């Protein structure tokens, strides 16, 4: 197992060819868990997005999706393709679409393109389906590694994995001239459990480390950035912080990225794993209903809070 520390702080761990419990697994698990506990992020090397699939995803599927007429994109608010975010005054050339969702039972929906293209688009559906299937395996591996590394038992890891939904999110940013400002996306935490992110060609992703400094992640094929979202903080009883990250690039070229995200299933209530609550680690979060939290954070009073997760379900709320 190869594990190196980028900028002396965040680990990059090679997960290629590793099997649970096999050679190198324990070492990789320790490196992944330590980086997640310290920074809420780790970089992993993996072949889930090989050169040929990568080309199909970023040079065909993503440009085709963002090239559809604006009114069709705006209508993509429900169904298999949904969650479209269009240009806004603060990000005039940014678009993002969640293009697939399902797989609680590991199945992949392949007919996503029928929603957008009247006659379908088999190449698009196959590309998204293949990517999702590969990423599902990697995502489950990383998530199990983190929980196992923290001491959560197999039974609870399995029930946690069964409680998740997964989705693919494609994002497109115009050039610096079109965006108008090199801060393409402001610093934020994701509301996911875990996001695995890959940048195409143009760098820009920056992760905040636990000393407050920013680490710029190179856009390297074969490397995924694993970022903890708010809900992993709940599951781990605060042991894994949600990573703060942003996108900043002075590039004069358009930029594409893809994220494979895990979130609790609709209506699901997430609670800290029992193994992570004891005398030394008192309970930090009350049970958190995901949908209610998302409403609170993005539409409700949580918008005014510097720590919406804590305001919503923190056991101690008075330190803000
Ligand atoms: O495009 C990227 O590299 C990161 C995007 C991101 O952080 C997000 O969409 O939440
Ligand atoms: Fe993000």
UniProtKB/TrEMBL annotation:
Keywords, ordered alphabetically: Dioxygenase, Iron, Metal-binding, Oxidoreductase
SUPFAM superfamilies hit by this protein: Clavaminate synthase-like
Domain Fe2OG dioxygenase: 164-264
PROSITE patterns, per database record: FE2OG_OXY
InterPro entries the record matches: IPNS-like_FE2OG_OXY, IPNS-like_sf, Iron_ascorbate_oxido_reductase, Oxoglu/Fe-dep_dioxygenase_dom
GO molecular function ontology, one term from the record: dioxygenase activity
Pfam families the record matches: 2OG-FeII_Oxy
Similarity comment: Belongs to the iron/ascorbate-dependent oxidoreductase family.
Free-text function comment from the UniProt entry: 2-oxoglutarate-dependent dioxygenase essential for auxin catabolism and maintenance of auxin homeostasis in reproductive organs. Catalyzes the irreversible oxidation of indole-3-acetic acid (IAA) to the biologically inactive 2-oxoindole-3-acetic acid (OxIAA).
Protein name: 2-oxoglutarate-dependent dioxygenase DAO
Organism: Digitaria exilis
């Amino acid at each position: 197992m190869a594990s190196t520390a980028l900028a002396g702080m965040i680990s990059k761990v090679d997960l290629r060819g590793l099997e649970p419990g096999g050679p190198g697994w324990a070492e990789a698990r320790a490196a992944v868990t330590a980086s997640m506990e310290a920074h809420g992020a780790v970089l992993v090397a993996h072949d889930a997005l090989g050169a040929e699939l990568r080309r199909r995803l970023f040079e065909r599927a993503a440009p085709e999706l963002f090239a559809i007429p604006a009114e069709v994109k705006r209508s993509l608010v429900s169904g298999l393709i949904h969650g479209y975010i269009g240009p806004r005054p603060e990000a005039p050339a940014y678009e993002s679409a969640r293009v697939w969702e399902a797989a609680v039972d590991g199945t992949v929906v392949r007919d996503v393109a029928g929603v957008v293209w009247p006659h379908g688009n088999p190449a698009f559906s196959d590309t998204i389906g293949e990517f999702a299937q590969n990423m599902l395996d990697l995502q489950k591996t990383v998530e199990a590694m983190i929980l196992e590394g923290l001491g959560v038992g197999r039974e609870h890891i399995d029930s946690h994995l069964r409680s998740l939904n997964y989705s693919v999110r494609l994002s497109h940013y115009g050039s610096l001239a079109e965006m108008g400002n090199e801060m393409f996306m402001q610093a934020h935490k994701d509301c996911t459990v875990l996001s695995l992110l890959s940048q195409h060609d143009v760098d820009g992703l920056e992760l905040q480390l636990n000393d407050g400094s920013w680490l710029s992640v190179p856009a390297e094929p074969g490397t995924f950035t694993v970022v903890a979202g708010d809900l992993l903080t709940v599951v781990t009883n605060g042991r894994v912080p949600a990573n703060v990250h942003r996108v900043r690039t002075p590039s004069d070229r358009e930029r594409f990225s893809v994220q494979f995200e895990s979130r609790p299933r609709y209506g699901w209530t997430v609670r800290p794993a029992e193994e992570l609550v004891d005398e030394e680690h008192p309970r930090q979060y009350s049970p958190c209903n995901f949908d209610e939290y998302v409403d609170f954070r993005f539409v409700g009073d949580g918008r005014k809070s510097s720590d919406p997760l804590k305001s919503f379900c923190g056991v101690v709320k008075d330190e803000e």
